[in-house]
Design goal:
The chain is an alpha+beta fold. The chain folds into two domains: 4-16 and 60-165, no CATH class; 18-57. It contains six helices and six strands, in the order E-H-H-H-E-E-E-E-H-E-H-H. The protein has helices at residues 16-36, 44-53, 60-63, 120-138, 148-154, 159-165; strands at residues 4-12, 65-73, 77-85, 102-104, 111-113, 144-145.
Length: 166
């Protein structure tokens, strides 16, 4: 059974708004500390210190991905795989530069059979339903799943044609 990867949907530790609030709070504390030490904000040393202090948060999409949901196809099934760190993270350290290794969690029953009488629209709807169910049942509520690209592409995808190619 050959599986073809169709989507890799990133799972973030924080949504953009939560991360933005945390970064703003951290930045304001850092600026207050510089003011206490009588360092002007336009000073070159202050700018360099600020850059070093804010290093891991500059591009949120790439620094706070903690897992993926992979959607794959075979000739008769749609498969879902969940990739997360090999050790369960009790508390996410958002200000860290350390990246954890990701592995497949091998959760049971994460696929559905596509019967011959299912229309393409039914396959699309069922794939979306399954993704929503996986997000609700297998991920912590605080995690943010970026399914924007999946939703956009899923509306025009021809699953039947792709399954014949696999």
């Amino acid at each position: 059974m050959k599986k073809r990867k169709l989507f890799e949907i990133p799972v973030y530790a924080l949504d953009k708004e939560s991360l933005r609030r945390r970064v703003d709070t951290k930045n304001s504390r850092f600026k207050k500390r510089l003011e206490k030490e009588n360092v002007r904000n336009d000073d070159e040393i202050a700018r360099k210190a600020f850059d070093v202090n804010n290093f891991p948060q500059r591009v949120w999409e790439y620094n706070h991905i903690i897992g993926y949901i992979v959607i794959s196809l075979t000739t008769q099934d749609v498969w879902f795989e969940i990739y997360f760190p090999y050790q369960e993270i009790k508390r996410y350290c958002w200000n860290s530069k350390v990246k954890k290794s990701l592995i497949n969690t091998y959760a049971n029953g994460l696929h559905f059979h596509v019967s011959s009488d299912m229309s393409n629209e039914e396959i699309r709807d069922k794939t979306k339903q399954w993704l929503d169910t996986i997000v609700c049942n297998h991920l912590l509520r605080r995690y943010c799943v970026d399914s924007e690209a999946f939703i956009f592409i899923n509306t025009s995808l021809d699953y039947r044609k792709l399954m014949k190619i696999v």
